[in-house]
Amino acid sequence: MALKSRNKVNANFSMSSMTDIVFLLLIFFMVTSTLIAPNALKLLLPKSSNQTAANPITSVSIDKHYNFYIETTPTPFSKLEGKLQRMLAKHEDPTISLHVDKSVPMEQVVKVMNIAKNNKYKLILATSAK
Q: Can you tell me where the transmembrane regions are (predicted)?
């Protein structure tokens, strides 16, 4: 009597489910990375080892050519205070993040600090980590 086993082991492996998972992960990371809106201005920030946990409402940037920006919108200094007042009027405790290129003289920084002081805004000076 010749008895043969009918259960044969198939050595093939299907990669289709693995590729589906990889493509889903790829799509997920592509979508979530587009939701992040970094500061698009190229600034060399001064270095600091201290960081704050405050959450600023808006940011003001000064580039190396002394151009002022609210978020990424170019704004002349003469209109900076008015635009900030309109943006921050509804907020109870407004906080501004100040991004300044390290080649900008302190005089330009003090101009924005005076606007914040006159309107009772909190001001955070943005730095890069050491």
A: 21-41
